[in-house]
Specification:
- With 118 residues, this protein is mainly β.
- Helix content is 0%, strand content 55%.
- The protein has no helices and eleven strands.
- A hairpin with a 6-residue loop joins β9 and β10.
- The radius of gyration is 14 Å and the shape is globular.
Length: 118
């Protein structure tokens, strides 16, 4: 059974910072991506760990402001969000990967709300 639990969301003023956490449990399951979904919009990928965190990738909208990292010992992924803008308001979801006999299986958590407003 894979569990994906996000935390760290909240309300912040423009220009502020937040740090999200994603704790993953389950056999061979690891966190890999952060996604977000704003009301009325499709879910979008914002940050990705590549090769277990040796490399990272970001969407154009967050590049230079957000940083994704992982504490492998805790199987926990983080998203440091700086210089937040109202357009960053969304529910942020963590995606985890688990290898399976028929191919990879992906799981999302319930999400954590981030609201950027003055």
């Amino acid at each position: 059974q894979v569990q994906v639990v996000e935390s760290g969301g909240g309300s912040v003023q423009p220009g502020g910072s937040l740090r999200l956490s994603c704790e993953v449990s389950g056999t061979n399951a690891v966190p890999v991506d952060w996604h977000r979904q704003a009301p009325g919009n499709q879910r979008e990928l914002v940050a990705r760990l590549i090769d277990g965190g040796a490399k990272t990738a970001y969407s154009d909208s967050v590049s230079g402001r957000f940083t994704v990292s992982i504490d492998s010992a805790k199987n926990t992924m983080y998203l440091q969000m700086n210089s937040l803008k109202p357009d960053d308001t969304a529910v942020y979801f963590c995606k985890a990967y688990q290898p399976g006999p028929n191919g990879p299986v992906y799981y999302f958590g319930q999400g954590t709300q981030v609201t950027v407003s003055s």
